[in-house]
Amino acid sequence: xxxxxxxxxxxxxxxxxxxxxxxxxxxxxxxxxxxxxxxxxxxxxxxxxxxxxxxxxxxxxxxxxxxxxxxxxxxxxxxxxxxxxxxxxxxxxxxxxxxxxxxxxxxxxxx
Amino acid sequence: xxxxxxxxxxxxxxxxxxxxxxxxxxxxxxxxxxxxxxxxxxxxxxxxxxxxxxxxxxxxxxxxxxxxxxxxxxxxxxxxxxxxxxxxxxxxxxxxxxxxxxxxxxxxx
Lengths: 111, 109
Fold this sequence. Notes:
The structure holds two protein chains of two kinds. In chain A, 0% of the residues lie in helices and 50% in strands. By secondary structure, chain A is mainly beta. The N and C termini of chain A lie far apart (36 Å). Chain B is built from no helices and eleven strands. The N and C termini of chain B lie far apart (40 Å). The A-B interface holds A 4, 31, 33, 35, 40-45, 48, 50, 56, 58-59, 90, 92, 97-105 and B 1, 4, 6, 31, 33, 40-45, 48, 50, 88, 92, 95-102.
C-alpha cells in the first residue's frame, strides 16, 4: 500500500490564482481530512469527509472547497489564493474516524 | 471549540535522558493520540489511548490517558538522536480532530 499520497509537494502561487491539491489513499478508508499547518503551530482542520459524497467544514474552511466523488480521492480547491493561505497542507485518512494516517504534505507559498 | 494545551513548547536534552511531556484540555476526550512529526514529513501515529487510566507502551515510549479524561502524558526513556522532532497530542471531537501546538524536542548527542 502507498498509504496517503499528495501532489504536488511544493507550489508557488500568485495572489488570486487558483489550484487544486490532490490527495489519494489506497487503504479503503471512509474518513478523509485536510489540515493546514502554519510555522511552529499544530494542525488545523479545514474540511473532512466521512464517505464518498459527504463533506463537512472543519475549524478553518474559509477560502477552500472540497469534493469527495470517490472513496480514494479528496481534492482541496483554493479559488482565489491569498498570502494568508501560505502554509503546509496535510491530507489524512482514517478507517473509523479516530487514528489518522497522514500524507507527506504540500508546501504552498502565495506571493 | 475544544483546545489542547501542550507543554513544554520545546525541550533540549542530552542523549540518554528521559523526557516527559503532557497535554491538557478543558473538555473531556474519549481518545487521546500522540503523533511525531519529522522535519518535512507528515505526522506519524505513535500511541493511541482509548480508556481513562490506560497506560500504553510502544518501545521506549509510554503514554497515559488521564483519569479525568482531560489530560494525557507521553514519556520517552533513554532518548536517542532520532527522537528529535515535534510531538503532538490530538483528540477526536465527533468527526473533528483537535491537535495541540506541539512539543519540539532536540536531543544533543
